[in-house]
Amino acid sequence: MLKRDNNQSDGSLDDLISFTSSINNDLKPPTKHKHQKKLKIPISILILTFLFCLGAIFFINHTQTVNATKASFIVKRDFNPKTTDLTKHASIKDMDKLKEYAENLSDSDKRAYYLKLAEAGRQAVQDQQRYNYLIDANGKYSTRLTEKRLTRDMDILDGEKKMNDRLPKYSYRSYWRYMDLIGSTQVVNYLHQHTNELFTKKGKVKKNVSFQQVDQLLYYHSKYKKKFQQSADDYNRLTLARKVLVKRQKKQEKKRRKEEAKKRKEESIKESLKRAQESSKAVQDSIKNAQNKQTANTRTSSATSISSSNDSSPSSNTDNNDNDDNDNDDAQSAEESSDDESSSSSYDSASMSKDISSILHSSRNNQSSEQ
């Protein structure tokens, strides 16, 4: 019994010792290991801050590189190698993107260069769009094209000094493009006015129009019909007008032939009447001659003289009738010739050619002086 109790007392003592040691451990001051843990927090913050700064620097440098690369790509695609002219790929959207990329660049020189190029390029694209608007869906210059409108566009072009300085090649090309277009437009409008003079208000071809007028206008319009819708329309009108003239000519020819046939018929009737009169006269003369043979020689001679005088009088009347017919024919031909002259007197072929040459010559002189 005593032995068991001793064992129990030893176990309780061990438990007490372990409990006491655990309390002592809790009451001990912090060790060096916990102090190190507290130092790790600010060090981690510093490391994270450093890594964040490195990431920010890397991101900024990467953004700068991306913006510079994108800006350079737009410039190479939308401008010629010397950046003095646009290419067919240029658009307003591209110029706005170029401006956006340039504003985010830290390099002041590149930033200024790309910003100026974007502004000048935007102005040039707007000018190109304004010029393209002059062309209709058929690929020809619109009928709304006028010299006044082109001059107004030229004034806008001259006012864009930044485009002239930054894109000189495009500015020069656009300037002369407008100037050449102004001269051609003047000629087209001049031809259009003369074309309208050949037609009535209802669109019918006037009676005094000649083939020469139509053919000359067709010749000049053929030079501009591929580029100008107005000339193409006038060319079609003149083509139809020429067909009308051909029909008129055939109708007049048919009428002339009909009149000639009628005239020949009348002449044949006159000839037949004349032959009938002559035959009747011959019969009468033979009867008179038979009767006169029975009379005296003196009366025979007088009767012969009378019959000869009678023979001469109808022939003179016939001659007079022929002369009257010839006079009427001459009068009719004179009237026809006067009508032809009146139909062409209001038209001067040489004058039209001279006017067109003068328009083109003055346009070129204005271009040289303005340049």
UniProtKB/TrEMBL annotation:
Protein name: Uncharacterized protein
Domain of life: Bacteria
Protein's UniProt keywords contain Membrane: yes
Record flagged with keyword Cytoplasm: no
Compositional bias (Polar residues): 279-294, 359-371
UniProt biased composition (Acidic residues): 321-342
TM region positions: 41-60
Composition-biased stretches (Basic residues): 246-257
UniProt KW keywords: Membrane, Transmembrane, Transmembrane helix
Compositionally skewed regions (Low complexity) per UniProt: 295-320, 343-358
Region of interest called Disordered, as start-end residue ranges on this chain: 246-371
Biased composition (Basic and acidic residues): 258-278
